[in-house]
Every structure is written in structure tokens, then in C-alpha cells.
């Protein structure tokens, strides 16, 4: 089974930052220092307003783009420093990755069938329905990327 770090490296992730190990340093400042001015693209995937703000602040001035993928479950507004927009940063949302179902799903299906897009490599665990709590524990521990829960598989 792959750890999320190992899986990320296999799919091209170059650097990892654990915010819980930064002490008093803001995540955006660490990313700006790591990248020499900010990331070209920042993706927020979990739906937390404060993380959306940090992603925006982590983007490079001039042409940094922040893509919001997560839905803020409590409906909290995000607060972004307006001056950073004047220096060329932008933020946008993307529902389902911005795909156009009619044209893009057949292309993705073809790539999956030809093994050009290897989705099975994203699966780190498989459990039966009775082990659903194990699946959640693995996710919370950062040990699971994607877990398949089999409805017909009983625990041994």
C-alpha cells in the first residue's frame, strides 16, 4: 500500500509541507520562501475558507493562479487581500475539474481503457463495508489516498 507522500511523488508532486510542523510561520510565507516568490498555481481542495485564503496568499505575484475546488461547508466567506489582485494574482473556481461531460468523459474513458490514465494507482486500500471505520482512520492518519469500500466483502 502506498503512502500519500509516495503516491504524490509518483504523480509528480515535488514538495510537501505539513502545516502542523511550521510553528508560528504562516503556510503562505513558507511556500513563498520555498518557491522563490510564490507558486504559479495553488489548488484548494478541502473546502475551508482559511485554507482558500492561504492558497491565494501562496500564489506568485504577477501571474499566480489559485483554483478553488472545495466547497466551504459552513458557507463562510473568504477574505482575500485586494491589493494582491492589482499585482496580477487571480482566483477561480472549478466544479468537477471544469470538464465538459459530453466531450471530456468519452476522452477520459478511452484513456482509462487504454491504461494511459492509470486510476487504479490512486487506490491505496480496499476494505469491506464492515471495515468502514478503518477506512476513515486511514484517511485521517494520512495513510490513504483513495479507499474502495466493497459492499459485498465481509471482514474475515
TrEMBL record:
The keyword Protease does not apply. It catalyses: a secondary alcohol + NAD(+) = a ketone + NADH + H(+); a primary alcohol + NAD(+) = an aldehyde + NADH + H(+). GO terms for molecular function: alcohol dehydrogenase (NAD+) activity; S-(hydroxymethyl)glutathione dehydrogenase [NAD(P)+] activity; zinc ion binding. Gene3D superfamilies: Medium-chain alcohol dehydrogenases, catalytic domain, NAD(P)-binding Rossmann-like Domain. GO terms for biological process: formaldehyde catabolic process. Pfam families: ADH_zinc_N. GO terms for cellular component: cytosol. Residues 8-102 form the Alcohol dehydrogenase-like C-terminal domain. The keyword Metal-binding applies. Keywords: Metal-binding, Zinc. Its cofactor is Zn(2+). Homodimer. This is Alcohol dehydrogenase-like C-terminal domain-containing protein.
Amino acid at each position: 500500500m502506498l503512502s500519500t507522500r509516495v503516491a504524490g511523488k509518483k504523480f509528480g508532486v515535488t514538495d510537501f509541507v505539513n502545516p502542523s510542523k511550521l510553528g508560528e510561520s504562516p503556510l503562505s510565507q513558507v511556500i513563498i520562501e520555498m518557491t522563490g516568490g510564490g507558486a504559479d498555481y495553488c489548488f484548494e481542495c478541502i473546502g475551508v475558507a482559511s485554507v482558500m485564503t492561504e492558497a491565494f496568499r501562496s500564489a506568485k505575484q504577477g501571474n499566480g493562479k489559485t483554483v478553488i475546488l472545495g466547497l466551504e461547508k459552513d458557507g463562510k466567506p473568504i477574505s482575500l487581500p485586494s491589493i494582491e489582485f492589482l499585482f496580477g494574482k487571480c482566483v477561480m473556481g472549478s466544479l468537477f475539474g471544469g470538464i465538459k461531460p459530453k466531450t471530456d468523459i468519452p476522452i477520459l474513458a478511452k484513456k482509462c481503457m487504454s491504461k494511459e490514465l492509470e486510476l487504479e494507482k490512486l487506490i491505496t486500500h480496499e476494505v469491506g463495508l464492515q471495515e468502514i471505520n478503518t477506512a476513515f482512520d486511514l484517511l485521517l492518519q494520512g495513510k490513504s489516498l483513495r479507499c474502495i469500500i466493497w459492499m459485498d466483502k465481509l471482514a474475515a
